[in-house]
Amino acid sequence: LLGASTETGIFHCTCGGEPVSWHAFAERIVERAGLSVPVESCTTDEFPRPAKRPAYSALENRHLHDTIGNSMRDWKEALDSFMEHYLEQEKNV
User: Fold this and answer.
1) Residue range 39-79, pLDDT digits in tens
2) Fewest CB within 10 A of the end CB: N or C in the chain?
């Protein structure tokens, strides 16, 4: 991206695919890790953070895509690839 364009502004750089909740994201991690543990869902209000957070928010890559004409791969594909690599490394520790 650097040097590829004269565009300025904020470029969100996040995987593609449908927006996903933190709960669904955690469930996929647990599943790909081969664990059999429950992942409990909670609301934003039930999980207080120092900064106030909206009940729903999602990033999109439109500015990035419109500038360089490319999209990042689906989050599921990226997570699965990461987990495969991570778990393989863990075997060798």
Assistant:
1) 999 988 888 889 888 888 888 888 888 888 777 899 999 99
2) C
Is the Cβ–Cβ distance between 87 and 35 less than 8 Å?
Answer: no
Angle at 28 between CA 22 and CA 31, to 5 degrees: 140
Other CB atoms closer than 10 Å to residue 64's CB: what's the count? Answer: 20
Please give the Cα distance from 34 to 30 (Å, whole number): 6
Which pTM value belongs to this model? 0.79
Partners of residue 16 on adjacent β-strands: 74
